[in-house]
Amino acid sequence: MIADRVKNTPPSGIREFFDLVLGMPEVISLGVGEPDFITPWRIREKAITALEEGYTSYTSNKGLRVLREGISRRIKKRYDISYDPDEEVLITVGVSEGLDLALRAVLNPGDAVVVVSPHYVAYPALVAMNHGKVLPLITTEQEQFKINPDRLERLLKKNPKAIILNYPSNPTGATYRRDELRTLWKYLRRKDTVVITDEAYEDISFDVAHTPFAVLDSRARDRTIHLSGFSKGCAMTGFRVGYACASQKFIGAMTKIHSFSMLCGPIVSQLAGIEALRTEKEIAQMTKAYRRRREFMVKELNRIGLPAHMPQGTFYCFPSVSATGLTAMEFAKRLLFEEKVAVVPGTAFGQEFGEYVRMSCANTLDSLKEAAIRIERFVGRVCCEGKR
Ligand SMILES: Cc1ncc(COP(=O)(O)O)c(C=O)c1O
C-alpha cells in the first residue's frame, strides 16, 4: 500500500546506528547533531510567558509579521540584503520544512538536483520523495571538502533543476569565502539552476565571515532560496522554527504548499523566535565554546593518528579512520562496544565516505577529553592487532 518512492528510500544511516546506542549506559555520544546547550533563558522565558498569556492559536500562513520583519531587518543589518517581509519571507517549521517546500515548489518528476557530498543525511531522501533525481557532486579531503568548479561545470551540463548548497557544512564544517562563492556563481549563472542554500549553521562560523549566496548580485538573489533558522545558532532544535527568504515567485509557491500542508509554524516558537533575534551575545558565547572544543578535538585527533582538517564552522569534525584499517562502520561499531564512544560512520553522508566518521563537538570539554582518551586507547589497540 506504500508508494514506491517511499518504500525505496533507505532509512537515515544515523538513526539506524543510534538505535544501537539507545539504552547503552556510560556512552559518550559524539553522534548527535544538535547543540548540547539549553536554549538561552530569555528565549525560554518568552515562550513560557507566551503560553501564560494564552498565545495558543494559529498565526497567518506566512508566520507572525513581527517575526518576518525582525528576520528581514537582521538579514539587512548582517549582510546588507533586503527581503520584503510581506512577500519574500516565510516562517517554516525548521530549516527541514523549508527544504521540503523548496524542493516541492521547484521540482517536476524526474528533475535532477545537484547534492554536494558528503551531505546532510536528509537531502537524497527529500529529493527522492519529491520525485527528483540526485546528481552527487563529490568533494574531497584534499580540497577541504569544497566544491571543485570543474566538477560543478561538468554536472551543470546535465541541466539540473536545482542545487543544494549547505555551508557551513554538516558533516565537514567546510564553508566558502565570498570570492569562492563568486567562482561557483560564475558557472551557475550560465544556467537556470535554482540555488537552494541551507545556511542552518550560519551563526556557527569561525574563521570566515558567513556570506549568504543571495548577496552576490541581483541575479543570484533572484535565483536563490535562502533557508536558515534558530535550531543550531540559538540551540532551539526542539522549537521547530526556521525561515525561507527568496523572491516572491518562490515564497509565493512555497507559501501555497505550506498553507495546505502545515498551515503555520507553532505560535509559541514564533514568539520565541522574536526573542532569539535579540540574542547575538548568547550566540557568540556558544560559538566561542564550539571553537575551543573544535580546536581541542582536531588537535587530539591528528595527534592520535586520525587526520582531520580544521572545520571552519558547525560543531562537527570529519576525521579519516583509514589508518586503522577499519571501515567507518567497523570503526564506529567497535568504538561503541569496546570504548563506549558513539560517532557516525561517514557512509551516512554519502557512500563514498566509508573512510571517515563524523564526530560532534557539541559536548563539554571534559567529555571530549575523556572521549579522546578512549579513542586513543582504541586506535592503539586496533593498530597493534594489525601488526600481529
Ligand atoms: C545541514 C542541516 N540542515 C538542516 C537541518 C535541520 O534543521 P532544523 O532543525 O532547523 O529543521 C540540520 C539538522 O541537523 C542540518 O544539519
Walk me through the structure.
The structure is a single chain. The protein is an alpha/beta fold and 388 residues long. It folds into 2 domains: 4-39 and 281-387, Aspartate Aminotransferase, domain 1 (Alpha-Beta Complex); 42-278, 3-Layer(aba) Sandwich (Aspartate Aminotransferase, domain 2). The chain is built from 14 helices and 12 strands. It has helices at residues 4-7, 13-21, 41-52, 65-79, 94-106, 122-129, 149-156, 178-188, 218-223, 248-261, 267-276, 280-304, 328-339, 365-387, and strands at residues 28-29, 89-92, 112-117, 133-138, 162-166, 194-198, 224-229, 242-245, 316-317, 341-342, 344-345, 357-360. A 7-stranded mixed sheet has the order 2-8-7-6-5-3-4, sandwiched between helices. A 3-stranded antiparallel sheet has the order 9-12-11. Strands 1-10 form a two-stranded parallel ribbon. The longest helix has 25 residues, at 280-304. It is globular. The site of pyridoxal-5'-phosphate has 13 residues, from helix 5.
Describe the secondary structure blueprint for this structure.
Elements: H1 4-7, H2 13-21, E1 28-29, H3 41-52, H4 65-79, E2 89-92, H5 94-106, E3 112-117, H6 122-129, E4 133-138, H7 149-156, E5 162-166, H8 178-188, E6 194-198, H9 218-223, E7 224-229, E8 242-245, H10 248-261, H11 267-276, H12 280-304, E9 316-317, H13 328-339, E10 341-342, E11 344-345, E12 357-360, H14 365-387
Parallel strand pairs: 1-10, 3-4, 3-5, 5-6, 6-7
Antiparallel strand pairs: 2-8, 7-8, 9-12, 11-12
Helix pairs in contact: 3-11, 4-11, 5-6, 5-10, 7-8, 12-14
The structure holds pyridoxal-5'-phosphate.
